[in-house]
Amino acid sequence: MTSQKPQSPQSPPARRRTSHRDTRGLQRARCAALASMTAAAISALGIAPVHAAPSPPPTRVRLEFIRGPGAEQCPDEQFLRAETARQMGGVDPYDANAPLTMAASIERRDGELVGSMFLRNGNGRGLWADGFSSRKDCRRLVAAMALSIAVLLEDPAEFSAAPAAPAAPAAPAGQSVPPQDPCSPDQPCPPQPAHAPPTTPAPLKTPPVRAPQSSAPPVPAERFRWVAGLDAVVGLGPTPGVSVGPALSISGRWPAWSVALEVRGLAALAGKIEAVDVSVSTITTDIVVCLDRRVLFACGLAELGMLRAAPSVPFDAASRWNLSAGMGARAGIEAPLSRNVSAQAHAEVVHPVVGAAILRHPGAPTPERPVWSAPALAVALGIGLRMNL
Questions:
Q1: What's phi and psi for 22, nearest 5 deg?
Q2: What is the rounded average pLDDT of the residues 294-303?
Q3: Whole-prediction pTM value?
């Protein structure tokens, strides 16, 4: 009996082990296929990559800066240039060869400083204008002008010209023009369409010039105000000899003119008239109307006063009061000391319409020659302070 050997079970076929190198190669193939499909889709749809457009540079202009009459002490062109560059983050927009011109000027008008700006192109056509005013703070006025210019130049759309007319559309690249057979006696030329007369395009309308909204704080303009005054006055003519005394005034002032009410009291320094001791004083009320131009002023005045003479050895039983009235002119200079206080000096001449006189016997029935009478012209000099109320 033949013995049979037991059969061993068949082992399964060995599997191939995937290496790390094969895995990376498969990933690269997949990425390359995906990139190729994406590029093909972008090309088929006509999609172009979008790039961020850089911000346009500020507009450059040629600067013309003028300081007119009354603005000689204002900051100069270098201050305006530096202030504009500071407002624009350090960029200097001024160029001597630029096609646009920015004309900036400062002058004094009717007692206040006025700053004006005007932008024009190479043909002299105005594109933009702005202005500010101030009474005394000229540095702040120039800074406001620089800020307004900086805001304008950083936004060129405020004054740019209208866009040009679009070009006529070209024929599609893929469309071909059919060839035409030459004309002959056997084959006449086909009728040609009538040509329409050329039409003149309508003129382009330039958009209106708009002034940019400036963020500079408004500069207050001068208006009506009340002014109080105190003066020391020296006069020659209102009393016998030289007289001195104070004067008080209150006035209403506008930028170019003023009206004042003034009360003055003067006492004569001379103590004798024809060897007689006499105390002489006068009180006058003046209405003064003045025209102001920068630091100078000129005035007309009307005066009404009373003269008192009190002799120590009486010419008569009692002191006498004499009425006087006159018309005159005044001129002077005023210089500011601070925001609300100024110093003033003036000179005036008054012609008496009703002249005062001192008589030895005022009540005598027979007219007599006056001991003293007012001269044809009375002169006074004054110096003092003015304060805004």
A1: -65, -35
A2: 93
A3: 0.46
